[in-house]
Amino acid sequence: MIVYLHGFRSSPRSFKARLLAERMSERGLAHEWLCPTLPVSPLESIALVEQALAGIPADQVSLIGSSLGGYYATYLAERHGYRAVLLNPATDPGRDLSHYVGEQTLWHGGGSIVVEPRHIDEFRTLAVASITRPERYYLIAATGDEVLDYRDMLKFYAGVTTTLIEGSDHGISDFDHYCDRTLAFCGIV
Question: How far is it, in rounded angstroms, from Cα 68 to Cα 155?
Answer without folding.
Answer: 17
